[in-house]
Design a protein that fits this description.
Elements: H1 2-20, E1 22-64, H2 71-87, H3 93-115, E2 120-156, E3 159-165, E4 172-179
Antiparallel strand pairs: 1-2, 1-4, 2-3
Length: 198
Protein backbone atom coordinates (compact mmCIF):
# COMPACT_ATOMS: atom_id res chain seq x y z
CA UNK A 1 0.00 0.00 0.00
CA UNK A 2 2.80 2.41 0.89
CA UNK A 3 4.57 1.58 -2.40
CA UNK A 4 1.47 2.43 -4.40
CA UNK A 5 1.02 5.78 -2.62
CA UNK A 6 4.71 6.58 -3.16
CA UNK A 7 4.47 5.75 -6.90
CA UNK A 8 1.39 7.97 -7.35
CA UNK A 9 3.08 10.84 -5.52
CA UNK A 10 6.22 10.52 -7.65
CA UNK A 11 4.18 10.45 -10.86
CA UNK A 12 2.16 13.49 -9.80
CA UNK A 13 5.32 15.43 -8.97
CA UNK A 14 6.71 14.69 -12.43
CA UNK A 15 3.51 15.47 -14.35
CA UNK A 16 2.35 18.67 -12.63
CA UNK A 17 5.35 20.85 -13.66
CA UNK A 18 4.98 19.58 -17.22
CA UNK A 19 1.32 20.56 -17.22
CA UNK A 20 2.23 23.99 -15.88
CA UNK A 21 4.81 24.48 -18.69
CA UNK A 22 3.76 26.38 -21.77
CA UNK A 23 5.38 25.81 -25.17
CA UNK A 24 5.18 27.58 -28.52
CA UNK A 25 7.30 28.02 -31.65
CA UNK A 26 9.07 31.10 -32.96
CA UNK A 27 11.56 32.11 -35.66
CA UNK A 28 15.28 32.45 -35.00
CA UNK A 29 17.65 34.22 -37.40
CA UNK A 30 20.30 31.98 -38.98
CA UNK A 31 23.76 33.61 -38.91
CA UNK A 32 25.90 30.81 -40.36
CA UNK A 33 25.61 27.46 -42.15
CA UNK A 34 28.52 25.07 -42.73
CA UNK A 35 28.11 21.92 -44.83
CA UNK A 36 29.57 18.78 -43.22
CA UNK A 37 31.06 16.18 -45.57
CA UNK A 38 32.58 12.79 -44.88
CA UNK A 39 34.63 10.41 -46.99
CA UNK A 40 32.37 7.43 -47.66
CA UNK A 41 33.71 4.16 -49.18
CA UNK A 42 31.56 2.78 -51.98
CA UNK A 43 31.77 -0.23 -54.31
CA UNK A 44 30.85 -0.08 -57.96
CA UNK A 45 31.02 -2.50 -60.87
CA UNK A 46 33.32 -1.59 -63.76
CA UNK A 47 32.76 -3.43 -67.07
CA UNK A 48 34.52 -3.40 -70.44
CA UNK A 49 34.64 -5.44 -73.68
CA UNK A 50 37.61 -7.57 -74.71
CA UNK A 51 38.09 -8.75 -78.31
CA UNK A 52 38.81 -12.49 -78.08
CA UNK A 53 39.65 -14.83 -80.97
CA UNK A 54 38.17 -18.30 -80.70
CA UNK A 55 37.67 -21.17 -83.11
CA UNK A 56 34.42 -22.83 -84.06
CA UNK A 57 33.72 -25.88 -86.14
CA UNK A 58 31.66 -25.48 -89.30
CA UNK A 59 30.44 -28.17 -91.68
CA UNK A 60 31.34 -27.62 -95.34
CA UNK A 61 29.78 -29.71 -98.12
CA UNK A 62 31.73 -30.22 -101.34
CA UNK A 63 30.97 -32.08 -104.57
CA UNK A 64 33.44 -34.85 -105.40
CA UNK A 65 33.45 -36.86 -108.65
CA UNK A 66 36.01 -39.33 -107.41
CA UNK A 67 38.53 -38.43 -110.15
CA UNK A 68 41.01 -35.63 -109.74
CA UNK A 69 41.38 -34.77 -113.43
CA UNK A 70 39.55 -36.67 -116.18
CA UNK A 71 40.76 -37.24 -119.72
CA UNK A 72 38.24 -34.74 -121.10
CA UNK A 73 39.74 -32.02 -118.92
CA UNK A 74 43.27 -32.77 -120.17
CA UNK A 75 42.20 -33.01 -123.82
CA UNK A 76 40.13 -29.78 -123.56
CA UNK A 77 43.09 -27.88 -122.07
CA UNK A 78 45.41 -29.04 -124.88
CA UNK A 79 42.93 -28.22 -127.67
CA UNK A 80 42.09 -24.84 -126.07
CA UNK A 81 45.79 -23.97 -125.71
CA UNK A 82 46.49 -24.78 -129.37
CA UNK A 83 43.46 -22.77 -130.50
CA UNK A 84 44.51 -19.81 -128.36
CA UNK A 85 48.04 -19.99 -129.74
CA UNK A 86 46.67 -19.87 -133.28
CA UNK A 87 44.48 -16.86 -132.50
CA UNK A 88 47.12 -14.86 -130.63
CA UNK A 89 49.97 -13.12 -132.31
CA UNK A 90 52.95 -11.13 -131.21
CA UNK A 91 53.13 -10.25 -127.50
CA UNK A 92 49.57 -11.47 -126.78
CA UNK A 93 50.39 -14.97 -127.99
CA UNK A 94 51.24 -16.33 -124.51
CA UNK A 95 48.14 -14.83 -122.93
CA UNK A 96 45.88 -16.21 -125.66
CA UNK A 97 47.45 -19.66 -125.24
CA UNK A 98 46.88 -19.63 -121.45
CA UNK A 99 43.30 -18.40 -121.80
CA UNK A 100 42.53 -21.04 -124.41
CA UNK A 101 43.95 -23.77 -122.15
CA UNK A 102 41.77 -22.65 -119.20
CA UNK A 103 38.59 -22.43 -121.27
CA UNK A 104 39.31 -25.76 -122.95
CA UNK A 105 39.97 -27.40 -119.58
CA UNK A 106 36.64 -26.17 -118.19
CA UNK A 107 34.76 -27.47 -121.22
CA UNK A 108 36.53 -30.80 -121.00
CA UNK A 109 35.73 -31.06 -117.25
CA UNK A 110 32.02 -30.59 -117.99
CA UNK A 111 32.21 -33.37 -120.58
CA UNK A 112 33.88 -35.67 -118.01
CA UNK A 113 31.12 -34.97 -115.48
CA UNK A 114 28.31 -35.56 -117.91
CA UNK A 115 29.76 -38.92 -119.01
CA UNK A 116 31.13 -40.14 -115.71
CA UNK A 117 29.44 -41.33 -112.52
CA UNK A 118 27.30 -38.84 -110.58
CA UNK A 119 29.12 -36.56 -108.19
CA UNK A 120 29.04 -37.38 -104.47
CA UNK A 121 28.43 -34.90 -101.67
CA UNK A 122 31.31 -34.87 -99.20
CA UNK A 123 30.87 -33.13 -95.83
CA UNK A 124 33.96 -31.94 -93.99
CA UNK A 125 34.39 -30.17 -90.68
CA UNK A 126 36.64 -27.11 -90.65
CA UNK A 127 37.91 -25.05 -87.71
CA UNK A 128 37.28 -21.41 -88.53
CA UNK A 129 38.68 -18.45 -86.49
CA UNK A 130 35.98 -16.16 -85.07
CA UNK A 131 36.43 -12.84 -83.23
CA UNK A 132 33.97 -12.17 -80.43
CA UNK A 133 33.36 -9.41 -77.87
CA UNK A 134 33.56 -10.79 -74.32
CA UNK A 135 32.28 -8.59 -71.46
CA UNK A 136 34.46 -8.60 -68.37
CA UNK A 137 33.57 -6.96 -65.04
CA UNK A 138 35.24 -6.28 -61.71
CA UNK A 139 34.28 -4.57 -58.44
CA UNK A 140 36.13 -1.31 -57.82
CA UNK A 141 36.43 0.29 -54.37
CA UNK A 142 36.24 4.09 -54.32
CA UNK A 143 36.03 6.82 -51.70
CA UNK A 144 33.69 9.75 -52.34
CA UNK A 145 32.83 12.92 -50.48
CA UNK A 146 29.24 12.74 -49.20
CA UNK A 147 27.29 15.54 -47.49
CA UNK A 148 26.02 14.24 -44.14
CA UNK A 149 24.54 17.40 -42.61
CA UNK A 150 24.85 21.10 -41.82
CA UNK A 151 26.21 22.89 -38.75
CA UNK A 152 23.86 25.82 -38.15
CA UNK A 153 24.48 28.91 -35.97
CA UNK A 154 21.41 30.95 -35.07
CA UNK A 155 20.47 33.74 -32.64
CA UNK A 156 17.40 34.02 -30.47
CA UNK A 157 16.75 36.51 -27.67
CA UNK A 158 20.20 38.03 -28.07
CA UNK A 159 22.00 34.71 -27.57
CA UNK A 160 23.72 32.49 -30.14
CA UNK A 161 23.02 28.76 -30.40
CA UNK A 162 24.36 25.91 -32.53
CA UNK A 163 22.72 22.78 -33.88
CA UNK A 164 23.24 20.19 -36.62
CA UNK A 165 20.52 19.62 -39.22
CA UNK A 166 20.14 17.36 -42.24
CA UNK A 167 19.22 20.31 -44.50
CA UNK A 168 20.09 23.97 -45.00
CA UNK A 169 17.36 25.92 -43.11
CA UNK A 170 17.72 29.17 -45.07
CA UNK A 171 17.57 32.60 -43.39
CA UNK A 172 15.33 31.57 -40.50
CA UNK A 173 14.96 28.51 -38.31
CA UNK A 174 11.81 27.52 -36.44
CA UNK A 175 12.56 26.87 -32.75
CA UNK A 176 10.44 25.48 -29.91
CA UNK A 177 10.14 27.64 -26.78
CA UNK A 178 9.17 26.03 -23.47
CA UNK A 179 8.26 28.33 -20.59
CA UNK A 180 7.82 27.08 -17.04
CA UNK A 181 8.50 28.50 -13.59
CA UNK A 182 11.69 27.56 -11.78
CA UNK A 183 11.43 27.58 -7.99
CA UNK A 184 14.13 29.36 -5.99
CA UNK A 185 15.15 31.66 -8.84
CA UNK A 186 12.98 34.70 -8.21
CA UNK A 187 13.94 37.90 -9.96
CA UNK A 188 15.61 40.33 -7.52
CA UNK A 189 14.19 43.79 -7.06
CA UNK A 190 15.82 46.38 -9.28
CA UNK A 191 17.14 43.87 -11.86
CA UNK A 192 16.15 44.43 -15.47
CA UNK A 193 13.00 42.64 -16.57
CA UNK A 194 13.47 39.45 -18.58
CA UNK A 195 13.32 39.86 -22.37
CA UNK A 196 9.91 39.61 -23.99
CA UNK A 197 9.60 37.57 -27.17
CA UNK A 198 7.06 37.77 -29.91
Amino acid sequence: MKKTVFAIATLTAAVLPALAAESYTDRARVVGVTAITERVPISREQCWNDRVRTYEERKVTRTDTGAAIGPGTVLGAIVGGVAGHQVGSGRGNDAATAAGAVVGGLIGNQVDRSQGRPAEQVTEVERVPVDRNVERCRVVQEVREARVGYDVRYTYGGREFRTRLDRDPGQFLRVAINVQPVEGHEVAQGSPPPPRYR
